[in-house]
Amino acid sequence: MKNKSMHRWTILLGTVIAQLGLGSIFTWSLFNQPLVDKYGWRLSEVAITFSITSFALAFATLAAGRVQDNLGVRKLVSIAGLLLGIGLIATSRVTSLSTLYITAGIIVGAADGIAYITLISNCIKWFPEKKGLISGISNGAYGIGSIIFNYVLESLINYKGVSEAFLYWGIIAMVLILAGAQLLKDAPVVTSSVKSGSDHEFSVVEMIKTKEAYTLFIVFFTACMSGLYLIGIVKDIGVQLAGLNPTVAANAVAMVAIFNTTGRILLGALSDKVGRLKVVIFTLSLTMIAVFALSFVHLNFEIFSICVILIAFSFGGNITLFPPIIGEFFGLNKQMKNYGIIYQGFGFGALSGLFIAAVTGGLRPTFLVIGGLTLVSIILVSMIKPPKHTINVIDVKGCYNSSLS
User: Fold this and answer.
1) d(C-alpha 112, C-alpha 265), whole Å
2) Residue range 195-385+399-405, CATH number
3) Which of 3, 98, 180, 277 is the most buried (most CB within 10 A)?
4) Mean pLDDT, to the nearest integer, of 2-20?
5) pTM of the predicted model as reported, rounded to 2 decimal places
6) N-to-C CA span, the chain
7) Helices 131-160 and 29-39: crossing angle, nearest 10°?
8) pLDDT for 6
9) Is 158 a residue whose pLDDT tops 70?
10) What is the DSSP letter of 387?
């Protein structure tokens, strides 16, 4: 038992190391203006790269569960780390937007998504009695990666140029992911006596037949849209809505990374004690307050900073809470495949903020729409309960007994 306990902490260490490299993608906003300056592209054309990365990240998670069944967690994360590194290194040589979208968008996003969901799901199954805490630590490492790389990559851009920065980024991230992968091992089938919301392991087909799956998707989509929209344009929000100069507004990038990470760690641990759905209602409420403030309040540096902190903190918490929620609603052993379906809310959330902004024509109307969707999600979470599973079985006399939960 002692050896097994030590072994799973080694696996958690490997997860943390790999997540540091994977989380670096959330520094993308550092590259927008340098790419514009070097190639003369429009800022909006470069900025959409992060949305493509996020969508590819989410979409790739659909295949991760099936591939892991064949390759195992160590090989799968290693391959994903190689692909992510290759994608970033290739980005150092791009000269067209279309190539940028393929290398930094599709390749990097897909590799990151496969490794991310594999690490989270595998690690949670090693610690079924501490799902919130472990999800918080793993997701926290993902956030810490963005903080560390924010300063590393900013220095590389300043001293080596934007193209060389991509080269070094690819090498460093690839080394971290490969190193972490070597400490991983596939989790055993969970037979924990720790009480979960559901007493049945739902397959993907069974899960998508439940109303709870669609409710969780809507809530996750809303939570991700608010966070990802902010991350992608936080500097622009500071300049346009709060009247900050670009240098001061750029500090919000680090602010997002810090409080995003804080939310992942603190709220994950808190959810083990007070219940995950209660914490989700709390985070959505904070988000709603912040986006309505961005919509209606005259902003200065202090109010802008508080809104950014609340949204980033809440987004980080929700990203941490949903993996264990899916496991508790639909079963831990099939959590990875089921979470891959719900996780598509991340990709659609990344694109929807930009779409709403294009339709409404501005930042404030976009935040107003997000606030309304957040209010709807709060109501949905307050009403949801884990699904009951009903099956038909044949008794020893050959007669059907039904409604076994």
Assistant:
1) 20
2) 1.20.1250.20
3) 180
4) 84
5) 0.81
6) 33
7) 30
8) 64
9) yes
10) P
